[in-house]
Design a protein that fits this description.
By secondary structure, this protein is of the alpha/beta class. It is built from 14 helices and 18 strands. It has 2 domains: 186 residues, Formyl transferase, N-terminal domain (Rossmann fold, 3-Layer(aba) Sandwich); 238 residues, Class I glutamine amidotransferase (GATase) domain (Rossmann fold, 3-Layer(aba) Sandwich), CATH 3.40.50.880. Helices cover 31% and strands 22% of the residues. The strands form 3 sheets. A 7-stranded mixed β-sheet has the order 3-2-1-4-5-6-7, sandwiched between helices. It has a 7-stranded mixed β-sheet with strand order 10-9-11-12-8-15-16.
């Protein structure tokens, strides 16, 4: 887990929003809030949230290593500025270069630089007659508002808008997008960065059974090839709802025995997490994704998989088992029959999968199609790709390469792009 420190000088609404966003997850957590003002309301917010604080003056900040030393003692891995008005000193940049993010309340380079913050920016936008404004999220360097731009988000400035109204629109963008961008940047540091984990091995299958075929018949050859040399796998059956975990185990064991592989299920173990931590390979079955992730969260299995798979432990999942390999389960097709702690999943891939993807839009159907639902997802999560994985297809990641297997194309969704198809054999490196 990445520990985040937030620097803030004012009320701390953005700091609280970022802290709340990461509070329920396992990927990152705000563990320290620092301020140059002992009377800053952000410090009270931190105390209410149970987050540690650090107060410093100008001399301490610029002429000592006290702040950097506190960050190191706390194990801080990433820094976020949220309404912090001072330049970051060289010692802090040296210790955390490339890992300090700021949000500015305008579309830089307009209305940026020294002295341009908060309401000053919004007044300048209105007085300049700008037709749009927004936020700019950028990495921090030794100059005000001049670091590499990571993302921009825009909003209209309408006739009659006051600086206060512009501020409301900008704050809405900050609350919505700043945590998402922070998360995306942290993904590059976390174990889910596939480009840095060529040892990772994944087989993510859309569905277990094609119409008219036996259970796990169509992917049997690929599973055998992928697990070649593996003698025993740990099976996670918790997506089963209308039949027992024992029945699920029996069904999977019958197929895997044909491959010379023994299957042990975590539901029969007194310590499921320990079992996964020692497993030769991990297999996660399909069913209801909400039931699956709830049980995995409660037993600490997501964390174990997140740690072991990047080390090279083979992972096979189908349907819900493919869903939980993603950052979240937000693109599952399932009904939320139970309520997990959060929608966050393992995150060993950086994109979202919609298994069982269908193009169908039956005549007379007035509801949304799968495509419409996925377009809604990428609109709400603009930094994330989503893929429509059709039945009879699977994704294999091995030797640093992601490959589509099967005879059907896969549909790609990303905000700002018209959905399009990729074929088996196409380059999928953009998803990594």
């Amino acid at each position: 887990m990445i520990k985040i420190a937030v620097f803030a000088s004012g009320s701390g609404t953005n700091a609280e929003n970022v802290a709340s966003y990461f509070a329920a997850g396992e990927k990152a957590r705000v563990t320290l809030i620092l301020s140059n003002r002992p009377d800053a309301p952000v410090l009270e917010r931190a105390r209410r949230l149970g987050i540690g604080t650090e107060i410093f003056d100008r001399d301490t900040f610029y002429n000592s290593d006290r702040v950097v030393e506190r960050l190191r003692r706390e194990g801080i891995g990433y820094i976020v500025l949220a309404g912090f008005l001072w330049l970051v000193p060289d010692n802090l940049l040296g210790a955390y270069g490339g890992r300090i993010l700021n949000v500015h309340p305008s579309l830089l380079p307009r209305h940026g630089g020294k002295g341009m913050y908060g309401d000053r920016v919004h007044r300048a936008v209105v007085e300049s007659g700008d037709r749009e404004t927004g936020i700019t999220i950028h990495r921090v360097n030794e100059h005000y508002d001049s670091g590499d731009i990571v993302a921009r988000y825009r909003t209209e400035v309408e006739p009659g808008d006051t600086p206060e109204r512009v501020a409301e629109k900008v704050h809405t963008l900050e609350y919505r997008y700043y945590p998402l961008v922070i998360e995306a940047e942290i993904d590059k540091l976390n174990v889910c960065d596939m480009k840095r984990k060529p040892s990772m091995r994944l087989l993510l299958i859309s569905n277990s059974t094609n119409a008219g075929e036996a259970y796990l018949e169509y992917p049997k050859r690929q599973i055998a090839d992928f697990l070649g040399g593996v003698r025993q796998v740990a099976f996670v059956p918790y997506a089963a709802v209308t039949f027992s975990y024992d029945d699920y185990l029996t069904k999977v064991q019958a197929r895997f025995s044909e491959l010379g592989i023994d299957v042990r299920s975590v539901h029969r173990e007194s310590d499921p997490a320990r079992m996964l931590s020692q497993a030769e390979a991990i297999v996660v079955g399909g069913g209801n994704t909400f039931a699956l992730v709830k049980a995995m969260q409660e037993q600490g299995l997501l964390r174990v998989i997140r740690e072991r798979v990047p080390e090279g432990v083979p992972y096979v999942g189908w349907s819900a088992g493919s869903n939980v390999a993603c950052p979240t389960i937000c693109t599952t097709n399932d009904m939320p029959i139970v309520e997990p702690e959060s929608f966050r999943a393992v995150g060993v891939v950086k994109f979202q999968i919609n298994p069982h993807y269908l193009d169908a839009n039956p005549e007379g159907h007035a509801g949304e199609t799968r495509e419409v639902r996925l377009l809604e997802f990428v609109a709400a999560n603009p930094r994330r790709y989503a893929v429509g994985l059709r039945e009879g297809c699977m994704l294999r990641y091995e030797n640093g390469r992601l490959e589509l297997l099967g005879s059907r194309p896969m549909r790609i969704f990303k905000k700002g792009l018209t959905p399009y198809e990729v074929q088996p054999g196409d380059d999928l490196s953009f998803l990594l």
